[in-house]
Amino acid sequence: MPKSPATTVPPSIGVPSARAGRRWRGAAGRALQALLGGLFSHRFTSFATSCLFHTLALLVAALITLAVRAPVANKSLTVHLTPESAELEGPQGDGPLLDIDVENLTGDALQAAPDTLLSVPGPDADDAAEAETPNSGELDLTAGAPAGRGQLVSRRGGGLEGRGADARGGLVAAGGGDGASEQAVARGLRWLAAHQQPDGGWDFDHTKGPCRGMCRNPGQSPSTTGATGVALLAFLGAGQTHLAGEYQDVVRQGLYYLGNHTLVTPQGGDLREGSMYGHALAAWALCEAFALSDDPALGQLAQQAVDFMVYAQDAGGGGWRYTPGQPGDLSVTGWHFMALKAAQLGYRQIPPQTLERATRFLDSVQGERGARYGYQDGSGTETMTAVGLLCRMFAGCRRDDPGLVAGCEYLSGLGPASDNMYFNYYATQVLFHHGGPRWQAWNAAMKPLLLQTQATEGHESGSWYFSGGKCEKGGRLFSTALAVMTLEVYYRYLPLYRTESVLGR
């Protein structure tokens, strides 16, 4: 599957625009023709005319060379996400903390693109005008939620504050984790870091990078943006960002990869690489990274990714599937709900109708009065029930809602699956947020299962592999990321329904 065009450096960096160059050469050519015509009318000898012609030609060539090679002083990075987007300047002053080094971009990032996505302008204001990148407004990056925009849930619950070092230990103990579960998270992150590709991204086929085939069970999904997104989410879940933590460089390079593989369209930033699965995972990672760091460069990337999700939603049914506008299924829609939750926590702009339509889609695939959920209708399955219930929670469902209570009872009765990490990831979150005896029983089974199935030998040490659910296509990378995120459940999001905690709420 071909990759989306990357964020690129246009070939005209540091030189006058092609249009200006054509105008100058055209005027010079006409003047030269007039002069030569006058000379020939006075019947100069052919030798004299030839000398004069070549002298003038050399002079013109010299002037063009000086114009092209004019020095560019005080270069600054300007990020143009769309022709309408605001320019975020750096690295001087109060610019973005995540500075993309234009001069060191390689590979896909140097392919030609029709629009200027990244440019380094010179000091001449006339040159900037010739770049033809109009700026019609700035994104709202204020700390408060934008007026008139929809929200998923109140920020009283479900926030990211538990990922900080001060709160994390208390939340682990209160939720049922321990030192062993935290050590398993650390080993999983080391495996993921060791399998990052040289370009900063990840591939579901982990054997393409430094692994060189030493680990089994590679995935087949072609979306590197999806692989990069889910790997980053495991680091972000442990409070690791590009500004803080042991893996700052790993996270920074992963974010660069997503930024450089964003295809900017009039509808927003497209990170699909063939499927809306990939876009949802990448958008989710960008939104979480911004919510944790408040880096304005990430804020604009995240908003662009959200804008494309809004565009890609099925306006009639309210869900998402493989391509924009396609009637949705709950599997793809579930990942978009996760991304919308992260966008809400970062106060990204979400139109109210997007949330209303998504809720309407949940209505269309529920059964047994909201206790069960199906892929595209109400014929419930185990995994889709877990996905649907978590989406309901994020959409603001009350803890005592009869359908939610009955659904939690159903998941609790099933218990963790021995070979379906996709189901386990969603069901663990549902029961954790609902709390009570059902969560305690689930955690008593889920945590040992993950501790016992983590690889302990060779290059695979620290990883997991489950073949059930979606994990076979995603391979060892997807299994490992989901397992790490599941063991981070104690602090990944603050409990949705319990605002009192070690944070003093």
Describe this protein's structure.
- With 505 residues, the protein is mainly alpha-helical.
- The chain is built from 17 helices and 7 strands.
- The chain has helices at 18-41, 46-68, 125-130, 165-175, 179-194, 224-237, 248-260, 276-293, 296-312, 330-345, 352-364, 382-394, 402-414, 421-434, 437-453, 471-487, 489-492, and strands spanning 77-79, 88-90, 118-119, 263-265, 268-270, 366-367, 372-373.
- The protein has a 3-stranded antiparallel beta sheet, with no helix packed on it. The protein has a two-stranded antiparallel ribbon with strand order 4-5. Strands 6-7 form a two-stranded antiparallel sheet.
- A hairpin with a 2-residue loop joins β4 (263-265) and β5 (268-270).
- α6 packs antiparallel against α7 and α8 runs parallel beside α10 (330-345).
- It is globular.
User: What series of H and E elements makes up the topology?
Assistant: HHEEEHHHHHEEHHHHEEHHHHHH
Number of strands: 7
Q: How many helical stretches?
A: 17
Broad structural category: mainly alpha
Mean pLDDT over the residues: 76
> Measured on Cα atoms, how large is the radius of gyration?
27 Å
Low-confidence stretches: 1-49, 60-156, 500-505
Attribute tags:
mainly alpha; three-stranded antiparallel beta sheet; two-stranded antiparallel sheet; globular; disordered N terminus
